[in-house]
Amino acid sequence: MFVDMPLDQLRGYLPERPEPSDFDAFWDRTLTEARKHELNAVFTPYESGLAVADVYDVTYAGYGGHQVRGWLLVPRGASGPVPCVVEYIGYGGGRGLPIDWLLWPSFGRAVFVMDSRGQGAGWRRGDTADPEPGTGPQTPGVMTKGIGDPAGYYYRRLYTDAVRAVEAARSHPAVDAGRIAVAGTSQGGGTALAVSALVPDLSCALINVPFMCHIRHAVQITDEYPYAELAAYCRAFKDRVEEVFTTLSYVDGLNFAVRAATPALFSVALRDGVTPPSTVFAAHNHYAGPKEIRVYPFNGHEGGESAHAMEEAAFLRTHLGL
User: Fold this and answer.
1) How far is 306 from 259, CA to CA, in rounded Å?
2) From 251's CA, which of 19, 128, 145, 288 has a CA 20 to 30 Å away?
3) For the purposes of burial, counting CB atoms within 10 Å of the CB of 79, is it exposed (0-12), middle (13-18) or buried (19 or more)?
C-alpha cells in the first residue's frame, strides 16, 4: 500500500527543522578534531581476480584516528586520473568483497567504498571495529549507541569517517581529486546527504531513499526497523525522550540539507515503510543545492533498483564527465 501522504502534498512538504543552536560549531569542532590525526591512507594492492579493475584494500584514519577499512577499485587501463564515486553502505552492511562494487568501474569511474564501523554482521560482512563504546544502555544495532550525548553518538563517528573517506579517495594518484561524487542508499544515502554539506567542493551526490532524515516524524509514522530501535529505547526510557531527539537533531538530514550546495539526485519510493516518503521529500525540499528527484510509486525500500542506477549514471555523466 502507499504508506504516506499523496504525492502532490509530498512535493510541497517543508516541515520545520529541529536545529540546535550550535549545530555548525559542533560539526566544525568534530572535523577539526578528526583532522588532528594524520589521514594515513594506505592502499594495498589486492588480488581480486577481476579483469576490469585494479583493486586496493584501503585503511585510513577516521573519527578519533580509528582505523577504517575500505576498497578502492580503479578501471584497469585508465590513461590518467579518473573521477571517483565514494560509496556509503546501508544499515547493517559492510564493505563485502570487491566483486560487489563493479557498477561504477564498468562506467570508467573509480569507486571508493567505505566500511561502516561496527556494522557488517547483518547482510554483507564488514571489517571495521567501532572502538568508541558510547555510553549507557542501547538497543540492538547502532541507532541508540551513545544516544544520551551528541558528542558520543554513533552517527557523529560514522559521518566523520565519511568525510575522511573523501579525503582518502582524493589522496590516491589514480583519482581525479577535482571530480568526486558521494553516493549511497538508505543509511548510505543519509550519509551522502550529510557529506554533501560537510564537504563543500564535491561534484555531485547520489542520495537514494535516504535514512536519518526528519527523524522524529519517521519514528512517529513507521514501525519498521531501524527507526523502531529508537521507539523501543524511548518506550524503555520514558524520561529521556527529549534527550534522545536532541541528540538526533545533530545528525538529522534536514539540517544538513539546508547547508548543501552540491548538485544532488534523490530517489524516493512511495511504498517505502523503512524511509517513509515524507521523510525523503522533507530532505529533498529543504535541500539548498541544485537538486532532482526520481519517484518510484510502486516500489518499497528497494527504490528504483537497476532503472535508478541508469538514472544515476546519466547524472554522473553530466557532473563528472565520462
Assistant:
1) 30
2) 128
3) exposed
Q: How many whole angstroms from its chain centre is CA 54?
A: 25
Is residue 304 within 8 Å of residue 268, measured between CB atoms?
Answer: no
Dihedral sign from CA coordinates of 143, 241, 26, 187: positive
Q: Which domains does the chain have, with CATH numbers?
A: 7-316 (3.40.50.1820)
pTM: 0.96
Q: Exactly one of 57, 272, 286, 319 is catalytic; which is it?
A: 272
Judging by beta carbons within 10 Å of its beta carbon (0-12, 13-18, 19+), is residue 3 exposed, middle or buried? middle
| Cα-based distances in Å from 45 to 82, 165, 233, 247, 310 | 18, 18, 43, 40, 30
Look up cell 558510547; give the residue: 134
Residue 272 bears catalytic tag = yes
Q: Is 186 a catalytic residue?
A: yes
Q: pLDDT tens, 9-29? A: 999 999 999 999 999 999 999
Catalytic residue status for 161: no
Helices (H), 68-222: 103-106, 154-170, 187-198, 215-221
